[in-house]
Amino acid sequence: MTFQPHITVAALVRRKDRYLIVEEVYDGRKVYNQPAGHVESGETIVAACLRETLEESRWQIRASHLVGVYVYEAPNGTTYYRFGLAAEALEETGNPLDQDVVAVHWLTLKEIKALHHRGELRSPLVLKLIEDDLAGQAYPLSLIHENNYG
C-alpha cells in the first residue's frame, strides 16, 4: 500500500475573545472545527485557507501568519499534514455553505474547551492551534515557499 499524505489547512480566526468555528457532519456525527480542508492541485497553502474559510463559513479573511504545521495520524490511520494559519475576518458574504456544514459559530475558548472535553471537536488539532497561537507562536507567511523553481 502506498503512503498517501493528506495536506490540509485550517484558519484560526479570532475576533475579540471569540473564534470562528464551524459545526459540521463528519462520519455521521456533528463535530466542531476551524474552517479547514484539503489543498487542491495547483493551489497554494494561503489560497486554500482563504477558499476553505469562505466555503465553510461565508467569511472572507486575510491570512496574517503561520501558527504551525501539525502532523496528525487520525484514528482511521490517515496521516494529515495541517498548516494552521491565523487570519483576520474581513467580511461575511451571502455565499451558500458547504453541504456538510450545519452552522457557523463564534465561540469563546471556554466553550471550545467544553466541546473538547465532550469529545465533540473534529480533532485535537482544533484546540492545539488555538493554544499555540495564544502562546505567541507566529511565523511569517514567507516561511512557506510555494513558487515554481524551474
Query: Multimeric state of these chains?
Result: single chain
Number of domains: 1
Order of helices and strands: EEEEHEEEHH
- Quickly count the helices: 3
State the total count of DSSP E strands: 7
The CATH superfamily is identified as: Nucleoside Triphosphate Pyrophosphohydrolase
User: Could you tell me how far the N terminus lies from the C terminus, measured between alpha carbons in angstroms?
Assistant: 31 Å
How much is the radius of gyration in Å? 15 Å
- Summarize the biggest pleated sheet: 7 strands, mixed
Helix percentage range: 10-25%
Your description of this structure?
The chain is of the alpha+beta class. It has one domain (6-141): Alpha-Beta Complex (Nucleoside Triphosphate Pyrophosphohydrolase). It has helices at 45-57, 109-117, 125-134; strands at residues 6-15, 18-26, 29-33, 36-38, 59-73, 79-92, 101-108. Strands 1, 2, 3, 4, 5, 6 and 7 form a seven-stranded mixed sheet that branches. β1 (6-15) and β2 form a beta hairpin. The radius of gyration is 15 Å and the shape is globular.
SSE diagram, text form:
Blueprint: E1 6-15, E2 18-26, E3 29-33, E4 36-38, H1 45-57, E5 59-73, E6 79-92, E7 101-108, H2 109-117, H3 125-134
Parallel strand pairs: 1-6
Antiparallel strand pairs: 1-2, 1-4, 2-3, 2-7, 5-6
Summarize the structure.
The protein has 150 residues and is an alpha+beta fold. Helices cover 21% and strands 43% of the residues.
Write a concise keyword list for the protein shown above.
alpha+beta, 3 helices, 7 strands, 43% strand, globular
